[in-house]
Amino acid sequence: MVPPASRRRRLAPQVTSALLLTTASFGILTGCSSATGQAPDPAVASTRAAEPSAAVTVQPNQETVPTEGPEAPSEVVGTVVRFSGGGSVVDVTLQEDNPTTRDLVSRLPVTLAFEEFAGREKIAYPETGLDVDGSPGSDPEDGDLIYFTPWGNLGFYYDAAGIDYSDSTIHLGTYDATAEQLSAFDSADVHLEIVE
User: What's the predicted TM-score (pTM) here?
Assistant: First the structure.
């Protein structure tokens, strides 16, 4: 149904204003042009769209200020992460420099609840999953701290017999503790922190 001519005339300025505002907003969002007035190069625009960017805080009448979350040390291999809870302390030496170990370190300190799993490992679930993009799988051994991607859990393996290589098992580091020492973590709040 088409509105009467008198209504179309009243709507015309509103529609024109809305179109101009939309066009101006689109130009700003797509990265208008340089001072020459030329449109941005589509190849450059598509490349930039694929690049990650830092978060930006915008407040009215103020410049934009990039903000960043906590960062992991640039070199995580050799970093010692202390797990303490239930009267037990276990130090893990990180042996992998991958997105998963860097993400874990960036979240420290943190407190997690560990539990027994299948008579093979103690597991805990970080609040949100760790970054796994580009992190290789592993063939876990006793004494390994791993991250299991399908469930999003950390795991202290103390009986890895018969467990083979899996792309889903990301090796983070190693520890030296007994199953009894790890059992102190059952149902305890376990604090994770970097040891200086």
Answer: 0.63
